[in-house]
Design a protein that fits this description.
Layout (H helix, E strand, L loop, with lengths): L4 H28 L4 H13 L3 H9 L15 H12 L11 H5 L1 H11 L4 E9 L2 H13 L4 E6 L6 H15 L3 E7 L8 H9 L3 E5 L19 E4 L3 E5 L6 H4 L1 H4 L2 E2 L2 E6 L1 H17 L19 E8 L7 H12 L3 E5 L3 E2 L1 H13 L3 E7 L5 H8 L2 H6 L3 E5 L3 E2 L3 E4 L3 E5 L3 E2 H6 L2 E7 L1 H16 L1 E3 L2 H5 L3 H13 L4
Parallel strand pairs: 2-3, 3-4, 7-14, 10-12, 11-17, 12-13
Antiparallel strand pairs: 1-8, 1-9, 2-5, 5-6, 6-8, 9-18, 10-15, 13-19, 15-16, 16-18
Length: 486
């Protein structure tokens, strides 16, 4: 029997009422969460002006998990055990704060200890890696030398030439009896076929996806991604930084020709804190505790080595630790702050710190890519250039391929290298890991790299920037409006 007009009208009215109630509930949730006012207003506009689509946007990208129990796993005696294990393997002897470079940044050191339990370690050796091919060969060499375990965690792991070489090496070690655990982000590595996982498992590699996105149960996870890049071998060597595991990170691919990035090889006590981050993430997905002594060995490097803290942050953390650490170093700089970031969407907190430093006489320079791998991120990044120039900040466009490094160097005494971009997503929505290094030698090496990068970049002048085409400026302004949702 055909539906009568009255019936269709009644159904339509019920649907409209249900939609209105849904919008009202979502708006109430957003307001009660006390988000950044700009972000709150942006979501309200999206929900009210994009019927239907706005709700889908919120379901996939708007749900907030900060300060929730980590998906009901933060019952964690495991969490406390990991923190104690990472500390128990520390080398003894001497006061870890007795270092003039550390003293210059003691406020940052203490803040990171309080907001993320990032303990300062000082008996480390740190190698700076700026080429993908070198990074790949170093990691393969470390994997081949594994005697006990290998732990790997990547945002992007591709089944291409570079990824295949690493996967084959992991399979060989797992077949030989070495424990191999591997986490890949479900969104970042979405192109990995199920056959890849099946093959790794056949070779005894323990592998899983981080926060899998499956409709409808886990759609709220899509906005919260694991952006970390971690390799740990036997607890004796670790690799962290900005490079994922894909061939384009090695050769730049056809689009860019050259991929410019920054990674670290670390030996020493800091590895135990990197290990605790991996173990925590592994527990989230597998409910397997990795708290045995062998995962947190005592190290025997020089007690006068490199001082550093490993800071991690994520959408479920109480504090945005990495952002706060950047803010602290920028705000306390005396001479210069040099920054590279592929995506520049700093938010008001970091933006104000950068402007205040520059207007107070600090030489602030930022390098972003001329050519980006993201249309909207590229235009949004460039929407900030005008106000940075007005604050006497020098902004450069990197010309030699794609700049993907996430680095900061200040006063030749401190450096930050990690996975976190200077953008909303890294500060608030992604699981990230960065090394805060207080060492003149490492800072000087990074400073020298910046000097080289400036020569490969074009300095933006206020006059030239002002005369860009209107459509270019319009695209940037439109992208800027959407930046709180990125």
């Amino acid at each position: 029997m055909d539906a009568t007009p009255d019936t269709l009208t009644l159904v339509w009215e019920i649907l409209k009422a249900a939609y209105a109630v849904s919008i009202g509930v979502i708006l109430l949730i957003i307001i009660l969460e006390n988000r950044n006012p700009i972000r709150t207003i942006t979501w309200i506009v999206v929900l009210l002006t994009l019927p239907g689509i706005g709700i889908l946007f919120y379901i996939f990208f708007g749900q907030k998990i900060r300060q929730r129990k980590r998906h009901k796993h933060k019952s964690l005696k495991n969490d406390l055990e990991l923190k104690e294990r990472s500390k128990s393997g520390l080398s003894t002897g001497g006061d870890p704060h007795r270092n003039d470079t550390v003293d210059e940044h003691i406020h940052t050191v203490l803040m990171l200890k309080r907001n993320s339990d990032a303990l300062l370690t000082r008996n480390n050796t740190v190698d700076l890696i700026t080429e993908g091919r070198e990074m790949l060969e170093m990691i393969l060499q470390a994997i081949e030398g594994a005697q006990s375990f290998i732990h790997i965690e990547y945002y992007i792991f591709a089944d291409d030439e570079a990824g295949r070489r690493v996967a084959d090496a992991l399979e060989r070690k797992a077949d030989a009896g070495i424990e191999v655990r591997m986490l890949v982000d479900d969104v970042g590595s979405w192109e990995l076929p199920s056959a890849f996982f099946d093959e790794m498992k056949r070779h005894n590699v323990m592998i899983d996806s981080f926060l899998p996105v499956r409709f409808p149960k886990f759609t709220g996870h899509v906005n919260y991604r694991n952006h970390r890049k971690i390799v740990i071998v036997d607890g004796q060597v670790a690799f962290v930084g900005g490079m994922n595991m894909a061939q384009r990170y090695v050769d730049g691919g056809k689009t860019f020709g050259h991929w410019h990035d920054t990674h670290l090889r670390i030996k020493g006590d800091a590895i135990n804190f990197i290990q605790s981050v991996f173990a925590y993430d592994w527990y989230m997905m597998k409910r397997e505790e990795l708290s045995e002594n062998k995962y947190f060995p005592r190290h025997h490097t020089s007690a006068s080595g490199t001082a550093l803290q490993v800071a991690s942050s994520g959408p479920d953390a109480k504090w945005p630790a990495i952002m706060m650490g950047m803010f602290s170093i920028i705000s306390r700089a005396r001479h210069h702050v040099y920054i590279t970031t592929p995506y520049l969407m700093p938010g008001e907190t970091i933006l104000t710190a950068l402007k205040a430093a520059a207007m107070g006489g600090v030489d602030v320079r930022i390098i972003i890519p001329q050519k980006s791998d993201s249309w909207i991120a590229d235009h949004c990044s460039k929407s900030y250039v005008k106000e940075l120039l007005e604050a006497n900040i020098r902004v450069y466009l990197y010309q030699d391929g794609f700049l993907h490094g996430k680095t900061l160097e200040a006063d030749r005494t401190a450096a930050i290298v990690g996975s976190a971009n200077m953008d909303f997503r890294s500060f608030e929505q992604n699981f990230e890991l960065s090394a805060f290094i207080y060492d003149r030698d490492v800072a000087q090496r990074l400073f020298a790299r910046f000097e080289s990068d400036f020569e490969r970049a074009q300095l933006i002048t206020a006059k030239a920037w002002k005369h860009r085409p209107f459509m270019q400026r319009a695209k940037e302004s439109f992208a800027r409006v959407l930046s709180p949702l990125l």
